[in-house]
Amino acid sequence: xxxxxxxxxxxxxxxxxLEAEQRELDGLSETTGEDRKPVSLDQQSVGRVSRIDSxxxxxxxxxxxxxxxxxxxxxxxxxxxxxxxxxGYCAECGEFIGLKRLEVDPTVIRCVAxxxx
Length: 117
Ligand SMILES: [Zn+2]
Fold this sequence. Notes:
The protein has helices at residues 7-31, 33-36, 48-84, 99-104, 112-116. By secondary structure, it is an all-alpha fold. It starts with 6 loop residues before the first helix and ends with a helix. The mean pLDDT is 92.
């Protein structure tokens, strides 16, 4: 392993960033809840065109939330690995993933070689 960073060092470098992203994702899920609600079928209060608009807004909001939930799970898993002292090391071969790769996305779990293979 030689110069590979210690788990404490990796936590110092990345924990704050992961926790901040976690908070941001949770906040967005909360504030966008209204957009994902079922669209009202009440034709009196909403015309046909604006109802289609509403359905599109809802569909986009639901897709965005789906992506958010996925990312949220990845961020949560990265923080869990950090607790275990496994953060930053490849889930397949155990090699250090590399600071540059982690800088781009701290939630990656495989080194470049394993990701490609
Ligand atoms: Zn690997």
